[in-house]
Amino acid sequence: MLAKRIIPCLDCDLAIPLGRVVKGIEFKQIRYAGVPWELATRYYEEGADEIIFLDITASCERRDTMVNVIKKTAEHVFVPLAVGGGIKTVDDAKNIFNAGADKVTVNTTALKRPEIITEIADEYGRQACVVAIDAKRRYEPPEDKIAVSTPEGDCWFECSFYGGRAFTGMDAIAWARKVEELGAGEIMLTSMDRDGTYDGFDIELTESISSRVRIPVIASGGCGNAQHMLEAFQKTNASAALAASIFHYDEWPIGDLKRYLSNNGVVVRL
Amino acid sequence: MKIAIVDYGVGNLFSIYNALNQVEANPERITEPKGLFEADGLVVPGVGSFGRCMQRLSPFEGALVEALEEGTPLLGICVGMQLLFERSEESPGKGLGWVEGEVVRLPDDVLVPQMGWNELHIKKDVELLDGILEGDRFYFVHSYHCVPKDSSVVAATTDYGLELNAAISRDNLFAVQFHPEKSGPKGLSVLRNFVRLVRC
């Protein structure tokens, strides 16, 4: 049986050579957590199933820095590597793949030009194209949006782009179905409401999308402890769960977290 | 000792190169068929569709057959395993046909591709899987799977709702459906075993 994947996410500030990992609340950076390739190597040794690097600076001149980060990481880390942030063209993706990445994640570019999904999937295979969806709850859903009932009231989920700085008016559930159709191999689904809060994943968001698509969904945003991951796997069809801070600050070493999940009936790679 | 990664122009070979380096295999990327003759071991990776891979691999076919007949160990990885078969449902045209059988699409009632870490069930005691235990997990990414006519070549399977062939071994021919270069320490063990086979 396929194992549920545990994925540490490294938000990278690439303003210095080889970058640095930052983590903040609702995309505002607050703490430095280390050097990306070093942290990635530690997580690999602790049992991470995959590692995601997000370029939160996402400017042209820093793309070369990300390439160097991935090259350096790929010499030491032998699990799949995914990279996102600022990928605008298949050529951008190519540079990242050539550095040793296995998947790229696209968000803003895909919302502005959905064909990029098909272009990447055609060239590198569906499994290499992850679409990141950043979704925010909007209560009192209008008729043209897909309504989801939550303990806090009925809501719909709006896609955001530009790293959470702008909103599209687009329904995240409809968009998830669309990206599957266009060739995405996976969806990395982040709750804007929960990101950085340590309050747990948005279960309703994760379930409403993971039950409607036939591609893997990575639950993201809000993980504060192992119980949150357990809840996500018990209550939704998520194939993987992502966290950052609980790993960066040693609150939950990956090995301990996986043993906790396994003891509670979740199939993981130990 | 030289291990040649057959670089026939599909996907990037950076990961397999790094992983072989890690197990001190001294890998070299070979882009011309004549480069294969000096190799002590051959690795055939594969990314993308069966048809495209086969088309690009065809200039190397003669040299590969020759090396194989001389007893050079060869390891096919992922689509590189599928290419060893006679044909695939993915694309028209022939495969290398070194292993009798075909490559078929995963059924509709499972998520396709299979992507993630799945368990190996050991079927045969082979050097390639030395030190690998029943239930060890490896990283798979594939939409098609290999069905050999002669099941005695199967060294390991995995359970994805149906039993899939994960590794085959016959004389000096080896192949795995999973990605050893992305399967953590266990994957590196498989590559280390292959290197040991090449050294012997």
Q: What would you say this structure looks like, in words?
A:
The complex is a heterodimer of chains A (270) and B (200). Chain A has 270 residues and is an alpha/beta fold. Helices cover 33% and strands 29% of the residues of chain A. Chain A is built from ten helices and 13 strands. In chain A, strands 1-4-5-6-7-11-12-13 form an eight-stranded parallel barrel, surrounded by seven helices. The longest helix of chain A is centred in the N-terminal third of the chain and has 12 residues, at 63-74. By secondary structure, chain B is an alpha/beta fold. Chain B has one domain (3-199): Rossmann fold, CATH 3.40.50.880. Chain B contains five helices and 14 strands. Chain B has helices spanning 14-22, 50-57, 61-69, 79-82, 184-199, and strands at 3-6, 27-30, 41-44, 74-77, 85-88, 91-94, 99-105, 114-119, 121-122, 137-142, 144-148, 154-159, 163-170, 173-176. In chain B, the strands form three sheets. Chain B has an eight-stranded mixed beta sheet with strand order 2-1-3-4-14-13-12-9. At the A-B interface, loops of A face helix 1, strand 8, strand 10 and helix 5 of B.
